[in-house]
Amino acid sequence: MKRRKYDKAFKVEAVLQVLEERRKVSHVAKSLGIIPTMLSRWVYEYEQYGDKAFTGNGVPVPNTELEIQRLQKRVDELQLENEILKKFQEYSKRWEKSNTPSSGKTPRSTP
Predict the structure, then answer these.
(1) Distances in Å between the alpha carbon of 38 and those of 3, 14, 44, 85?
(2) Do 39 and 10 touch, CB atoms closer than 8 A?
(3) I need a surface site. Which of 16, 30, 50, 109 has the fewest CB within 10 A?
(4) R_g of the chain computed on alpha carbons
(5) In whole angstroms, what is the distance from residue 14 CA to residue 95 CA?
(6) What is the 3-state secondary structure (H, E, C) of 47-83?
(7) DSSP state of 100
(8) Hey, CA dihedral for 33, 36, 41, 43, is it positive or negative?
(9) Which residues, 6+ apart, have CB-to-CB distance to 53 below 8 Å?
(10) What are the tens digits of pLDDT across the range 59-78?
(11) Nearby residues of 10 by Cβ (< 8 Å), 6 or more positions away
């Protein structure tokens, strides 16, 4: 089955029939020869992104909330890494301090 490509004007016109003319998705889809789920997705994208929807050619619409979540997750990971490194650094300093001879004293030998 060959996929048809629909231009932005076609999609916007279909969406506006649903949103402004208050026509049912199923009726608009049938009149245009498309499946209702496709039109529902177009309506959703238009409601979410307005004029930035339907960029075409496989170019994704920027999802700022998803990007913020991704970056927040990365920030959390980096903060955790920093905490681990700081704890290791403190542990390492204490270990070195406890395993070096104190200044001016020679270790006692046991008989």
Answers:
(1) 12, 11, 10, 50
(2) no
(3) 109
(4) 32
(5) 70
(6) HHHHHHCCCCCCCCCCCHHHHHHHHHHHHHHHHHHHH
(7) S
(8) positive
(9) 11, 42, 45, 46, 61
(10) 566 677 778 888 999 999 99
(11) 32
Which phi-psi region, left, alpha or beta, contains residue 54 (left: φ > 0; alpha: ψ -120 to 50)?
left
- pLDDT reading at 39 higher than 70: yes
Alpha carbon separation from 56 to 9, 23, 80 (Å, rounded): 11, 25, 39
Do the Cβ atoms of 33 and 22 come closer than 8 Å? no
* Vertex 18: Cα angle to 7 and 51 (nearest 5): 45
pLDDT at 85: 96
Q: Which helix (H) or strand (E) holds 87?
A: helix 64-98
